[in-house]
Amino acid sequence: MTSPDKGEEKEGPVIRDRRRIDPETGKLREPAGEPAPQATADGDAGASDEEVSSLKTQLNERLADLQRLKAEYDNYRKRVERDRVAVREQALGQVLSELLPVLDDIGRARDHDELTGGFKSVAESLEAVTGKLGLERFGEKSEPFDPTVHEALMHSYSADVAETSVVDVLQPGYRIGERVLRPARVAVAEPDPNAGGDDESGDDGDE
């Protein structure tokens, strides 16, 4: 009897467990030789895409909230600035309105060459200060009549004007910025409606 080959004795019998259920874990085994499906990996990838999409959506929402908040703040800041300017102009207007009669006296004194000596120095200083505060005098002869800034106290017709114009300033007007403290009180003249008609009738007579 020949002795068995040493290699066969060393290798021994090979036992392959072909059971579909793992006796230790109780889970279904995958067939031998086939790669395990990538369900878990694919599932993780899918979950990651959904998370990224959700994060992008949340980020866009937060960005929109920040932009809306910034716009509201900018509008608030502009409104506060407008209110601040309006309050300043209103306060200045109340103070400067009380000085208008004094400025009228200074103007009349200047027109009559009575603005001399120390009175002239004080008057010019007062006019300079009110000018720095934004007080502006307006109303000049020959300028077009504007009912928003002029108050017509006298009215006439004239062949020397092509439109309703100021022919005399009875009392100057004052304003701060766009706010009129007092309209200019003026005499106005309109174009004479008969001036052209007389010329035309005279021409007809010559013919």
UniProtKB/TrEMBL annotation:
Residues 197-207 have a biased composition (Acidic residues). Pfam families: GrpE. It is found in: Cytoplasm. SUPFAM superfamilies: Coiled-coil domain of nucleotide exchange factor GrpE, Head domain of nucleotide exchange factor GrpE. This is Protein GrpE. Its main location: cytoplasm. CDD domains: GrpE. Homodimer. InterPro entries: GrpE, GrpE_CC, GrpE_head. Participates actively in the response to hyperosmotic and heat shock by preventing the aggregation of stress-denatured proteins, in association with DnaK and GrpE. It is the nucleotide exchange factor for DnaK and may function as a thermosensor. Unfolded proteins bind initially to DnaJ; upon interaction with the DnaJ-bound protein, DnaK hydrolyzes its bound ATP, resulting in the formation of a stable complex. GrpE releases ADP from DnaK; ATP binding to DnaK triggers the release of the substrate protein, thus completing the reaction cycle. Belongs to the GrpE family. Residues 1-56, 186-207 are annotated as: Disordered. Residues 1-32 have a biased composition (Basic and acidic residues). The gene is grpE. Keywords: Chaperone, Cytoplasm, Stress response.
